[in-house]
Amino acid sequence: MFLIVMMVGVTALLVCRQKARKVVEERATVRMSVRRERPTSGVHLGVRGNRRISSPIKIQNFESHYSKLQADSNYLLSAEYEDLKDVGRNQPLDSALLPENRGKNRYNNILPYDSTRVKLSYVDDDPCSDYINASYIPGNNFRREYIATQGPLPGTKDDFWKMVWEQNVHNIVMVTQCVEKGRVSKLNTRCSRGEGC
Questions:
Q1: Cα–Cα distance for residue pair 51/4, rounded to 1 Å
Q2: Which of 33, 118, 153, 171 could form a disulfide with 134 if both were Cys (CB 3.0 to 4.6 A apart)?
Q3: Contact (Cβ atoms closer than 8 angstroms) between residue 117 and residue 137
Q4: What pLDDT score does 40 carry?
Q5: What is the SS3 assignment for 68?
Q6: Are 92 and 113 in contact (CB under 8 A)?
Q7: d(C-alpha 100, C-alpha 68), whole Å
Q8: Run of H or E residues at 84
Q9: Are 187 and 158 in contact (CB under 8 A)?
Q10: Which residues contact 39 (CB under 8 A, 6 or more apart)?
Q11: What domains are there in the chain, each with its CATH number?
Q12: Element spanning 187, H or E
């Protein structure tokens, strides 16, 4: 009886390992869209709307595919990047478009989607006090591994630091210019003096 139980256990373990290996192999493919006049060997192109898209590219073929995109002064890479500008643009932005929240957006064309926005804790039962122009970004380990946000405005700097505190942020990386419209960024000035960073 013990031998039968051991054989069933070993068989189940081997089956689970095989399924896990297949999942890892499936995740190793990268979806890329390529705009080309005619398909090359090994890459099947389809058409979605008026955009040309390719089938997934296996990770082991990615380097050679990327080299092809860089040919002709990065023309194909630039074309592929242009195709990305409309991806996901049909998602709702209801919170960002509320009149009470419009003043909290540095730019009116860069808004967080409702499904990925960072929500602050409510203050005094104000339904709009949870809004900040910030979105979660998936990483290698978690769906909400990173946060992208705009540089805080004078009226949103407290919300920015509240978000840092509530989300337990350990690192802040500023990837914007230090000077915007001839003015030095407030966050950059504070950080360079060692205040609040």
A1: 57
A2: 118
A3: no
A4: 41
A5: helix
A6: yes
A7: 48
A8: helix 62-84
A9: no
A10: 45
A11: 38-79 (no CATH), 94-192 (3.90.190.10)
A12: helix 186-192
Phi-psi region of 113 (alpha: psi -120 to 50; beta: other; left: phi over 0): beta
Return the pLDDT at 36: 33
In angstroms, the Cα distances linking 26 to 23, 41, 89, 173 are: 5, 22, 27, 32
pLDDT for 14 equals: 86
Concatenated DSSP letters for 117-157?
Answer: EEEPPPSTT-TTTTEEEEEEE--SS-TTSEEEEPPPPTTTH
Q: How far is CA 134 from CA 106, 148, 193, in A?
A: 11, 6, 25
pLDDT at position 114 is 92
Give the integer Cα–Cα distance in Å for 140 and 179: 32
Amino acid present at 112: P
Q: What is the pLDDT of residue 84?
A: 79
Q: What share of the chain is helix, strand, coil (3-state, %, to 5)?
A: 40, 15, 45
What is the bridge-based pairing of β-strands 183-184 and 45-48?
A: unpaired
Exposed/middle/buried for residue 157 (C-beta within 10 Å: 0-12, 13-18, 19+) = middle
Q: Mean pLDDT of successive 10-residue segments in the chain (197 residues)?
A: 88 82 52 35 46 71 87 83 80 91 89 93 84 91 89 90 93 76 61 46
